[in-house]
Amino acid sequence: MLQDLDHKIIEDVLQGDGDKFGEIIGRYKNGVYSICMRMVGDAEEARDLSQETFIKAYNNLLKYNPEYKFSTWIFKIATNLSIDYLRRKKHQALPLDEKLSMPYDTASAEDMYLHRCNKDEIERVIQELPPDYKALVILYHKEGLSYQNICDVMKLPMSKVKNRLHRARSMLKERLKEIKEEESIWTAKELQI
Fold first, then answer.
1. Which of 85, 97, 141, 158 places its Cα 20 to 30 Å from the Cα of 128?
2. Can you tell me the distance from the alpha carbon of 53 to that of 78, in angstroms, rounded to the nearest whole number?
3. Given CA atoms 123, 127, 130, 133 in this order, what sign does their dihedral have?
4. pTM for the whole thing?
């Protein structure tokens, strides 16, 4: 089991075999980088935050509680570092959810264009969310974490995770509705000319 292997490697590292931490990095580098990249939207910053995540994890390995999954702990570090970064800087983030992609072989050029515009709008609105809400949307909808895993990562009670995720979705829905209304008014004006 992956979790047992993680615990064995961590034991070895704590007993002086620091080189074994490379196995942990190899196992989690893609997940950590993915979270950082989607949060900050800048490849260089995401690499720096990923590296900082592993340094922080290594330096605080004694604080890791083996009752929990190691992935939860390291994703929490990555998420918190990304949130801190976003609070210091305001950056555009990478498109959040590739699951929105429409299969090109079955869509007309117009459908693909409209889909791309809608996807870009959704991405832009997600980036406008407060960092804590944005993190929840990314962890749940893109990274596929369960509510329980998000609770563990964010150190929040289940009710708060569900409530904030619901609030984030409501904010997205309301903001997208406003954009559509503005677009409709503009289009109606243009058609009357």
1. 158
2. 5
3. positive
4. 0.60
Per-residue pLDDT averaged across 176-185, rounded? 67
Can you give the three-state secondary structure of the chain, one letter per residue?
Answer: CHHHHHHHHHHHHHCCCHHHHHHHHHHHHHHHHHHHHHHHCCHHHHHHHHHHHHHHHHHCHHHCCCCCCHHHHHHHHHHHHHHHHHHHCCCCCCCCCHHHCCCHHHCCHHHHHHHHHHHHHHHHHHHCCCHHHHHHHHHHHHCCCCHHHHHHHHCCCHHHHHHHHHHHHHHHHHHHHHHHHHHHHHHHHHHHC
Please calculate the CA angle 74-147-79 and round it to the nearest 5 degrees.
Answer: 30
Alpha-carbon span 177 to 119, nearest angstrom: 14
Dist. CA 54–CA 77, nearest whole Å: 9
Average confidence (pLDDT) over 48-73: 90
Span 116-165, pLDDT tens digits: 666 677 777 788 888 888 888 888 887 888 888 888 888 889 999 899 88
Q: What is the pLDDT of residue 104?
A: 46
